[in-house]
Amino acid sequence: DGGRLAGYSDVDGANQQWQLVRLGGGTPTTPPGGSRTFTNPIKRNGPDPWLQVHNGVYYLATTTWNSTITIRRSTTLAGLATAQDQVIFNLAGRPNGCCNMWAPEFHLINGPNGPRWYFYYTAGQNVPDFNPTQRLHVLESAGTDPMGPYTFKADLGSDWQLDASIMTVNNRLYLMGTYNPGGSYGQSLFITPMSNPWTLGGSRVRLSSPTLAWERQTHPVNEGPEPLYRNGRTMIVYSASACWGPDYKLGLLTFTGSEPLNPAHWTKAPNPVFQRSDANGVYAPGHNGFFTSPDGTESWIVYHANDSAGGGCDMNRSTRAQKFTWNADGTPNFGAPARLGVALTAPSGE
């Protein structure tokens, strides 16, 4: 089921049907001396990580908080820790988003222009109070190399939005993200139908708001929605509570109906599915992504976290990764966030 974890798409002419394109590949190998290992973090100063395995190579992008978009790559997970970030696009001069690049994601979609990587990100203007200017944007690659080259494709909306991700349900493509609708809702998750990978195809719908006590610690927040697929089930793993507090954590929505644009067709888990571990010295784990091992047999989560309860929502957060399993009811079992510096077995097939 590994190729379904990351969510990639294929358009079928006028029917606008989308199919996920499998990631992974490469020839499984067993290195001399047994299994490879790695230790977290796999990137210091790496908030909002997005990691994919393509043709046996790991590609990692994180928030830069400047005008550059970067990716680092390695043939091993451990190698990402020392790999060099390479600039794949410069935002300087873009009127609607020159600066403050956050929350990058790149998705391989076989769409109207053939197979292309679509790179979604948040960026705003270079003004003293830049946060209100943050918007969603997308780049398009020239081919199927995750490193590009890329060209700017489109702005995705004209109001404050963060944390773009792509989901398919019933062969339809949707944009997910976070915004604040005002009133008593707080920062909420939204979903918008798309007519192609760079064009919105309908109205935005509020999917989930921070209604539970554990979603409102320090500040009420739902953000960072990420699709997760397993045996025909569609889920969304999202970040909850304030990123500038130690109790930032992950929650779970499960699609239990037939219409993804109807919030009533999603069921929210009553308890968080991944949270701080004081015993392991891990605080504010969140803003995750998913990837599969190079041989496609293992499910992995990538996320950022802080080393202390006093850590903030800044560039000091580091990128971590760990394998996860599945509960009998089909939901993910992420366990506890691993302690830094502990040797973990590397993904299968390296």
Description:
The chain is mainly β and 350 residues long. The chain has a single domain (2-345), classed as Glycosyl hydrolase domain, family 43 (Tachylectin-2, Chain A), CATH 2.115.10. It has no helices and 24 strands. It has strands spanning 9-10, 37-38, 50-54, 57-61, 68-74, 86-90, 99-111, 114-124, 135-141, 150-155, 162-169, 172-179, 188-196, 199-200, 205-208, 222-230, 233-240, 249-255, 266-268, 283-292, 299-306, 318-326, 332-333, 344-345. A five-stranded mixed β-sheet has the order 1-7-8-9-10, with no helix packed on it. The two termini are 18 Å apart. Residues 1-33 have low confidence and may be disordered.
Summarize the structure.
The protein has no helices and 24 strands. It is mainly beta and 350 residues long.
CATH architecture: 5 Propeller
Tally of individual helices = 0
Helix percent band: under 10%
Distance between the termini: 18 Å
What are the low-pLDDT stretches, counting only 5+ consecutive residues below 50?
1-33
Calculate the mean pLDDT score and round it: 91
Give me the count of strands: 24
Major pleated sheet: 5 strands, mixed
Spell out the helices and strands N to C: EEEEEEEEEEEEEEEEEEEEEEEE
The structural class is mainly beta
Strand content: 35-45%
| Total count of domains | 1
Give the CATH topology: Tachylectin-2, Chain A
In the CATH hierarchy, what is the superfamily? Glycosyl hydrolase domain, family 43
CATH class: Mainly Beta
